[in-house]
Amino acid sequence: MGESTQETRVVLITGPSGAGRSSAIKVLEDIGFETIDNIPLSLIPKLLEGSDPLDQPLALGIDVRNRDFSVEGLLHLRQTLGKQTQNVDLLYLDCSVEVLMRRYSETRRRHPMARDESPNDGILREKQLLEDLRSRADILIDTSELTVHDLRAEIEGGFGAVTGQGMALSVHSFSYKRGLPQGLDMVFDCRFLRNPHWQPELRQGTGLDPEVGAYITEDARFAPFADKVEDLITMLLPACIEEGKSHFSIGFGCTGGQHRSVFLAESISAALARQGWRVSIRHRELERRSAAPIRVSADDLSGRKAG
């Protein structure tokens, strides 16, 4: 075997059919990955052999359609590639049986593991087959409640840094009423802060409005809380990089996901961006109000002030 490159990033993408693997591969291609879908497992190690390093990170789509697919074979492949390059991630895209059934019903496609049976038989059979892969994945994204835009944001936030901008940070605001967003590494509860919802003149506003932010910062607990959160995050991020993480997701939650969590997410993101971190923001509940993704980049944050 020729000399291997220690700089090549490899992402192995798998999961049940219909969970979004093809969409994820397209996003990775858009952000600078070289992508190959449905390549035989036995051919993959040859891609990293030789003295000439790949000039792009590599994303490989692997599922039950692969000619020589097996769970044991894919896990062995990950171990083999780990000896060629230290940067190997197994990305598992999961989805609930109910949603997969609906997707197959809408597209009228045959399931690859049940060509002469109902899609439900194939879905259940495949989910059981892949159970060990799911439990051993490096990155797990459940697409059951994600739109195509949501999935793109998850992939961009998680892997955008791989193409040359350091570890990516994604900061989310959300409502506890609707549960935690998928894939958060760290969560902070903002419900102890004074709530603008109880002020009639602020109720229809959001944490993006200056008057709402001013009201929240008047709470004597806000400044020490924000300072400690920023200190904690900045202390942990270098350790996450040393561990080999390419992305880190932080969530701020409040009761309705409109005021306090939004303002904290904006404030902390701006502080991290000023330190040079690549940050993107998602405001889940505000996106549902506007019916369009509200995504903010580090460039947008550079001119903001952290309340």
Give a written overview of the molecule:
The protein is α/β, with parallel strands linked by helices. It has two domains: 9-147, Rossmann fold (3-Layer(aba) Sandwich); 168-301, no CATH class. The chain is built from twelve helices and ten strands. The protein has helices at 21-30, 44-47, 71-84, 97-107, 119-129, 131-135, 148-159, 210-217, 222-243, 260-274, 284-290, 298-301, and strands spanning 9-14, 34-37, 58-61, 87-94, 139-142, 168-175, 186-189, 247-254, 278-283, 295-296. Helix 2 (44-47) links the parallel strand 2 (34-37) and strand 3 (58-61). The N and C termini lie far apart (56 Å). Residues 1-6 and 291-307 have low confidence and may be disordered.
Distance between the termini: 56 Å
Gyration radius from CA atoms, angstroms = 21 Å
What portion of residues is helical?
40-55%
Q: With helices defined by DSSP (H or I, 4 residues minimum), what is the helix count?
A: 12
Quick structural gist:
By secondary structure, the protein is α/β, with parallel strands linked by helices. The chain has twelve helices and ten strands. The chain has two domains: 9-147, 3-Layer(aba) Sandwich (Rossmann fold); 168-301, no CATH class.
Task: Describe this protein with a few key phrases.
single chain; 307 residues; alpha/beta; 2 domains; 12 helices; 10 strands
Topology of helices and strands:
Elements: E1 9-14, H1 21-30, E2 34-37, H2 44-47, E3 58-61, H3 71-84, E4 87-94, H4 97-107, H5 119-129, H6 131-135, E5 139-142, H7 148-159, E6 168-175, E7 186-189, H8 210-217, H9 222-243, E8 247-254, H10 260-274, E9 278-283, H11 284-290, E10 295-296, H12 298-301
Parallel strand pairs: 1-3, 1-4, 2-3, 4-5, 6-8, 6-9, 7-8
Antiparallel strand pairs: 9-10
